[in-house]
Each structure stands twice: as structure tokens, then as C-alpha cells.
């Protein structure tokens, strides 16, 4: 099984992710917007799009002068006549191409003081999807359990520098960053990070150290996303100070819902203390429409946190477990499956907040 770094997309999968007609692929190739590779599948050679090909396609679309902070669509007549794209080549057959602008909030975190709600799983899928869309992404693992690190297929995290070395031992943050796939970097975590709270508590400007470190490398990325530990820790507080958007993952069960008031009041307290205004999205996860309790919790989340609840709901789906096990994406597991659809919608919502 291929890890995320090596995955390739079939033309149909590419068309689905890029939101173009499958028949437009040859025209996109002729226009120089898309490069495909030939991969041997059994006895036949198939045309595929590599992760790098996918990334370069989205980057080429964005670099055609259509910058903006909104998600745009531009028509293929524009692609073909050169107002946006490379002019040569035959007209592109599809009706419109999907041109995502830069993310609305560059620094984001996934957060909940409760464990097991799906933070690490959704963070991993989100950053991989953003890398597929051509963004320069930095993922930061702030949980000593290192689940984001493992989800991104890094199995030697115990040997690597973590944010501990940056915040406590003054290691330049750039030296803690490793590349995991085209367009995707990571600051990994390991068990040593579990010991950070006491030394961090003794540091001056403790809550600002992380945001100051992130600020030094922020211009190298379009999106910086942290996965956090399930606690009201100083480390998580530091990430709240650094973040613009907080994605709170809430499983659709009664105890997770019960914990939401605490999470929201913790965020509000920090906003007051650090005079910040954070955008907060609550993401209902592990929803099962056959369960009355799931429906009730979703209804209560939407009623009580109307302004903050995300439109996207992530259904309980075995593809997410499978993706975790294979350390790859849900699009690799089943590009047309429910998890792939849910995560595509969630990614667009969190990137553009539309
Ligand atoms: N929507 C979902 N459907 C099925 N399993 C899920 C879903 N979201 C998360 N999981 C599974 O739940 C478990 C806990 O998720 P994890 O991301 O580790 O939670 P957290 O980081 O909040 O502790 C993992 O085994 C993960 O694969
Ligand atoms: Mg986790």
C-alpha cells in the first residue's frame, strides 16, 4: 500500500477532487496545466496523476493572476483564451474549473479537552487534503502521544526534535521541521513532549513563545495547523494565542456534548486574557443518522452553538479507521466514499469559511 507521499490518483479521482469534467483532462494536459504519469497496474499502463501533479495543477491555476481570499470558479473559456491560464492548446472541455484562493485563516488548531473525539484523525486528513490542493502546509503535533505524527506516516518520531526543543531549549523552529510529502511539512511529537508543562510554566512569556516561533516561519506557508493534546494545558493555551481559527471536534455523543461548555468557556477566558478574538468552528464528528442519540446531540449542538457549528458533519465511517491504519488519506481508501465527501466539504469550509 502506498503511503500519502506516493499516492497517485486515477483520472476519475483527479476529476472529482479538481471538480472538472473527466473529459477535460486531455485539454488540461495540452494547456500545460496538468502533468500525468503512466503507472503499471497489473499488465496495463494507466494514466495517473501523482500527488506532485495534483499540487502543481492547483498551484498553476492560482498563479495565473487569479489571487484572492475566496474560493473562485473560473470558466474554461477563460482558461482557453488565456485571461487566466497558459494560452496555448485546445479549449478545455469542462464547464468550469475550481480555483481555490488562499486560506482565510493561516494559523489553525484542532482542539478539545476531551480525548477520542477525532482531533488527530481530522487534522491529518485536513492537512493532507490541503497539500493535495497545492497549499504549502505545516502541520504541528502538540500531543506527546504523537498520533498526528503517526497518521502522517512518520514512525521514527521518538528520534526527532519536537516543539519541546523549540520552546524549552531554544532550538530554531526551522530545525524542528521535517518534510513528509510534497507540499506538507511537520513538526513531529513524541512522548518527551508530555514533560513540557513544568519547564514551560517556568519560562518567561510562556504563552507567547509558540506564536513568536511560528511567526518566524509563517511566510513560508499558506496554512499552519496544529493538533493538540486533550487537556487545558499551557501548551494548548500557547497555540490558542497563536491561532486565528480554532476547530473544536465534538463527537456526537452526550459526554462530548457535555464537555463543550467547558471548551467554549476556556476559549472565551483566553480571548479575554490575551485580548484576542478567535474564530471558532465546532465540528460534529462520528455522526450516525441511524442513532437517535446522534441526531439529538447534533440538534443540541446546532441549537446551543448556532453561530459556531460547522455546516459539515463528519459521519462515522470505517474509511477513516482504514486511512489511519494505512497511514494515508480517505481519498486513497475510497475517493467516492462518505468519508471522502465529508472531509472534502469540511476542508473547503475550514479553508474559506464560506
Ligand atoms: N468519523 C469517524 N468515523 C469512524 N472512526 C473515527 C471517526 N473519527 C475518528 N475516528 C476514530 O476514532 C479514534 C480516535 O480518534 P483520534 O483522532 O485519535 O481522537 P483524538 O485525537 O481526539 O484523541 C481513532 O481510531 C479514529 O480512527
Ligand atoms: Mg489525538
3D structure, described in words:
The chain has 354 residues and is an alpha/beta fold. It folds into two domains: 4-99; 107-352, P-loop containing nucleotide triphosphate hydrolases (Rossmann fold, 3-Layer(aba) Sandwich), CATH 3.40.50.300. The protein has 15 helices and twelve strands. It has helices at 11-18, 25-30, 51-62, 76-81, 119-132, 147-151, 163-167, 197-201, 209-217, 234-242, 254-273, 292-304, 318-326, 330-334, 338-352, and strands at 8-9, 37-41, 44-50, 72-75, 96-99, 107-111, 137-142, 178-181, 184-187, 223-228, 245-251, 279-285. Helix 5 (119-132) packs across helix 15 and helix 9 (209-217) crosses helix 10. The longest helix is centred in the C-terminal third of the chain and has 20 residues, at 254-273. Bound molecules: adenosine-5'-diphosphate and magnesium ion. Adenosine-5'-diphosphate binds at residues 115-121, 147, 230, 285-286, 314, 316-317, 320-321, 324.
Instruction: List bound small molecules.
Output: adenosine-5'-diphosphate, magnesium ion
Approximately what portion of the residues adopt beta-strand conformation?
Answer: 15-25%
The class by helix and strand makeup works out as: alpha/beta
The strands making up the biggest β-sheet line up spatially as 8-9-7-10-6-11-12
| Major sheet | 7 strands, mixed
Q: How many domains in all?
A: 2
Cα gyration radius (Å)? 21 Å
Q: What's the mean pLDDT score?
A: 90
What's the shape?
Answer: globular
- Please give the number of β-strands: 12
Q: Say what oligomer this is.
A: single chain
The helix/strand order is EHHEEHEHEEHEHHEEHHEHEHEHHHH
Q: What is the helix fraction of residues, given as a range?
A: 25-40%
Q: Output the CATH topology of the largest domain.
A: Rossmann fold
CATH class of the largest domain: Alpha Beta
Low-confidence sequence ranges: 67-71, 76-95
Say which CATH homologous superfamily of the largest domain is assigned: P-loop containing nucleotide triphosphate hydrolases
Instruction: Indicate the CATH architecture of the largest domain.
Output: 3-Layer(aba) Sandwich
Amino acid at each position: 500500500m502506498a503511503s500519502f507521499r506516493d499516492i497517485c490518483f486515477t483520472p476519475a479521482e483527479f476529476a472529482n477532487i479538481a471538480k472538472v469534467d473527466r473529459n477535460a483532462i486531455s485539454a488540461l494536459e495540452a494547456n500545460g496545466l496538468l502533468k500525468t504519469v503512466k503507472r503499471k497496474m497489473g499488465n496495463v499502463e494507466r494514466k495517473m496523476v501523482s500527488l506532485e501533479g495534483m499540487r502543481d495543477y492547483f498551484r498553476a491555476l492560482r498563479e495565473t493572476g487569479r489571487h484572492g481570499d475566496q474560493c473562485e470558479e473560473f470558466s474554461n473559456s477563460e482558461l482557453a483564451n488565456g485571461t487566466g491560464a497558459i494560452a496555448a492548446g485546445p479549449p478545455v472541455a469542462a464547464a468550469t474549473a475550481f480555483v481555490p484562493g488562499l486560506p482565510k485563516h493561516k494559523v489553525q488548531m484542532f482542539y478539545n479537552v476531551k480525548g477520542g473525539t477525532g482531533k488527530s484523525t481530522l487534522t491529518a486528513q485536513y492537512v493532507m487534503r490541503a497539500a493535495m490542493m497545492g497549499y504549502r502546509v505545516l502541520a504541528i503535533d502538540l500531543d506527546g502521544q504523537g498520533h498526528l505524527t503517526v497518521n502522517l506516516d512518520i514512525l521514527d518520531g521518538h528520534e526527532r526534535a519536537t516543539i519541546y526543543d523549540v520552546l524549552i531549549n531554544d532550538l530554531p523552529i526551522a530545525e524542528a521541521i521535517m518534510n513528509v510529502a510534497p507540499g506538507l511539512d511537520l513538526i513531529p511529537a513524541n512522548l518527551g513532549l508530555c514533560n513540557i508543562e513544568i519547564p514551560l510554566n517556568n519560562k518567561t512569556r510562556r504563552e507567547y513563545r509558540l506564536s513568536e516561533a511560528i511567526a518566524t516561519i509563517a511566510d513560508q506557508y499558506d496554512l499552519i495547523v496544529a493538533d493538540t493534546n486533550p487537556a487545558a494545558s499551557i501548551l494548548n493555551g500557547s497555540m490558542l494565542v497563536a491561532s486565528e481559527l480554532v476547530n473544536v471536534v465534538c463527537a456526537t455523543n452526550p459526554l462530548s456534548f457535555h464537555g463543550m461548555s467547558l471548551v467554549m468557556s476556556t476559549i472565551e477566558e483566553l480571548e479575554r486574557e490575551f485580548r484576542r478574538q478567535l474564530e471558532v468552528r465546532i465540528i460534529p464528528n462520528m455522526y450516525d443518522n441511524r442513532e437517535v442519540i446522534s441526531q439529538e446531540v447534533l440538534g443540541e449542538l446546532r441549537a446551543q452553538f448556532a453561530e459556531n457549528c460547522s455546516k459539515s458533519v463528519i459521519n462515522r465511517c470505517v474509511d477513516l479507521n482504514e486511512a489511519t491504519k494505512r497511514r494515508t488519506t480517505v481519498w486513497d481508501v475510497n475517493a467516492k466514499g462518505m468519508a471522502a465527501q465529508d472531509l472534502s466539504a469540511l476542508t473547503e469550509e475550514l479553508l474559506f469559511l464560506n
